Amino acid sequence: MAAVDSLWEILTVATLVALAGLALIVGLVRGRGGKGGTKTIERPPTTAPTTVEDERADREGVQTPPGDDVDNVGGGVDVLEPEAPTPTLERPESARGRLARLRARLSRSNNAIGNVLLALLSSGGLDEQSWEDVEDTLLQADLGVEATDELVGKLRTRVKVDGATDVETVKGWLREELLALVDPSMDRRVAASRVGERPSVILVVGVNGTGKTTTVGKLARVLVAENKDVVLGAADTFRAAAADQLQTWGERVGVPTVRSEREGADPASVAFDAVKSAAEYEADVVIIDTAGRLHNKAGLMDELSKVKRVIEKQSPIDEVLLVLDATTGQNGMRQAEVFGQAVEVTGIVLSKLDGTAKGGIVVNVQRRLGVPVKLVGLGEGPDDLAPFDPEAFVDAIIG
């Protein structure tokens, strides 16, 4: 009987050892499943927004850090990824879909100009007072003195030679001459595609209050609608709300944002790291938002020039877009000239080209800077930014 008990004990121990060995083998097999399984990538932690003053008082105290050496560039910057795509991720409206809607809105705000001009030109028997009224209407539309003189001169010639006064003929003349002033031959494409092995770099500049950060967010939506891989750079480091706002725009359409983790960080450093991150992500384009600058503050404009130089140590800048508030009229012209001297502007974005805005600013700013208006904003909606179409613009003005 003792022998049977011993045998039973031996069998029990052997069974337990076998089960333990089997469990160990199963564990090892499961632990080696990396090559065939799903690789989990942890996203960088999101830095909680810091609270700073909305903007330094008149930005007078902002000092441009000495030098442009990039040895110290790159510290303290987070790449804030958007959450993984979910059913709530927004799908921006395509550019084509925007044009008809924005054209109708532009027509409502600028049609009065065309109506006045057509009434004057088709009234017959135009005297000097009538031509002065035509000039005044064009000047009030922010067309500018030079362009107004040119347009009135050509219309005078047509009326003198042809003598027609019916509305349709006059409307055709006005359309032809206005379209020539807007210049449809200008290249209005935004450089937003990869250049060789690197992403395109877009720098967005402008004064305070023009809607610059909002424009950057809306531009990202335009490009996402065109299936572009976009990275945003929040180089407006002097206003905490700007980085938060830009990050929110990006998250809505699945676009990552590069921003500083420190209050008042060097804007050039953030811009540099945004371009670097975009290259690592193999993005199509990186859009850099900069702090709003007063165009009459030389130190701030020098700082903006530094941002541009530091970026160019890593990559060429393919596009410098100047955001202008279309309601500022002639003051916007001065802004355009100063920014053009500081950063070689390549294109204009006219924000707020609705309501009280006058369409003639398109012609005026193009003549002053020699660069095209590429995008226009006509409302508060997220998709109220669209590529500028010269023919649709002129047709909207004259009705």
TrEMBL record:
Q: How does it sit in the membrane?
A: Peripheral membrane protein
Q: Does the keyword rRNA processing apply?
A: no
- Where found? Cell membrane; Cytoplasm
User: What SMART domains does this protein map onto?
Assistant: AAA, SRP54, SRP54_N
| Residue numbers binding GTP | 206-213, 289-293, 351-354
Residue intervals passing through the bilayer = 6-29
Q: What class of enzyme is it?
A: hydrolase
Q: Which NCBIfam families match?
A: ftsY (TIGR00064)
Annotated HAMAP family: FtsY
Q: Its family? A: Belongs to the GTP-binding SRP family. FtsY subfamily.
Protein name, UniProt field: Signal recognition particle receptor FtsY
**Species this protein is from:** Ornithinimicrobium cryptoxanthini
Name the gene for this chain: ftsY
